[in-house]
From TrEMBL:
<comment type="similarity">
    <text>Belongs to the short-chain dehydrogenases/reductases (SDR) family.</text>
</comment>
<dbReference type="InterPro" id="IPR036291">
    <property type="entry name" value="NAD(P)-bd_dom_sf"/>
</dbReference>
<dbReference type="InterPro" id="IPR002347">
    <property type="entry name" value="SDR_fam"/>
</dbReference>
<dbReference type="Pfam" id="PF00106">
    <property type="entry name" value="adh_short"/>
</dbReference>
<dbReference type="GO" id="GO:0016491">
    <property type="term" value="F:oxidoreductase activity"/>
</dbReference>
<dbReference type="GO" id="GO:0016020">
    <property type="term" value="C:membrane"/>
</dbReference>
<protein>
    <submittedName>
        <fullName>Dehydrogenase</fullName>
    </submittedName>
</protein>
<keyword id="KW-0560">Oxidoreductase</keyword>
């Protein structure tokens, strides 16, 4: 996918940039004059993502990073000369497999999807607050990748849904107060995206998006300044409706579809 020439950012950091939505976002932003700070846990895949972005003319700094490491994340942000946009995309998934959710999986999901987001977003906000505002009056933007799963407490993926709800609520609530400092936060809530994370799901995943389409929608929402960027709208609408159902009905429905599998990488 070719870089989006209209993006208003020139210094961009993306976590989880080695595959899936993270890589698609990196490639969509890559163009001459753009500096990309790409982070991921898999050095080999991250190198391939960085090479693809360099081929599009971007200046790329790649860093092997585990977002659960608070000190490492703070150092990564501090080393950047300036930062216009951080997309906190790194995350993991996991379900129950129809049984009790493993304790180590629950801990890993919250450590990565919640604490990992804060480990990059909080130092990024402080760095951005010290910068001069751009032509829009904005000093910096932080996009937090949540999910439409944030709007429904699915019994088959309790920790995942809860973790995504936590960062979605945090980003939207914090945006209201950080605007006074010229900062913006955005909760990015995609539906199903064709990635290795969703490839293991045995249940129906309607309105599946390709990573490139999801990246385009995400960047368009960020550029437009939307606090909540939820897409595609049918999946978002169904999630809001399902989230409004009584808990007993949700449990009954969950018992009649294949459960999300337990993660093999925690």
């Amino acid at each position: 996918m070719q870089g989006m020439a209209s993006i208003p950012w020139r210094r961009i950091a993306i976590t989880g940039a080695s595959s899936g939505l993270g890589r698609a976002l990196a490639e969509a932003c890559a163009s001459p004059g753009v500096t990309l700070h790409l982070a991921g846990r898999d050095a080999g895949r991250l190198s391939a993502s960085a090479a693809a972005c360099r081929a599009r003319g971007a200046t790329v700094q790649e860093t092997t990073l585990d977002v659960r490491d608070q000190a490492a994340c703070g150092g990564w942000i501090a080393a950047m000369e300036g930062l216009d946009l951080l997309i906190a995309n790194a995350g993991i998934s996991g379900g129950t497999g129809g049984q009790s959710e493993p304790a180590d999986q629950v801990q890993a999901i919250f450590a990565t999807n919640v604490q990992g987001v804060l480990n990059t977003a909080l130092p990024a906000l402080e760095k951005m607050a010290a910068q001069a505002p751009d032509s829009r009056g904005i000093r910096g933007q932080v996009g937090v990748v949540s999910s439409v799963a944030a709007f429904v407490a699915a019994p088959g993926a309790a920790a995942y849904c809860a973790s995504k709800a936590a960062v979605q609520n945090w980003a939207e609530a914090t945006d209201a107060t950080e605007r006074a400092r010229g900062l913006r936060l955005h909760a990015i809530c995609p539906g199903y995206i064709r990635t290795p994370m969703t490839a293991v799901n045995a249940f129906p995943m309607p309105f599946m998006l390709e990573p490139e389409d999801a990246a385009r929608r995400t960047l368009a929402g960020l550029a437009a300044g939307r606090t909540r960027i939820a897409y595609p709208w049918p999946t978002y609408a169904v999630s809001r409706l399902a989230g409004a159902l009584p808990l007993s009905i949700r449990a009954w429905l969950a018992s009649r579809v294949p459960a999300k599998p337990v993660s093999e990488k925690v």
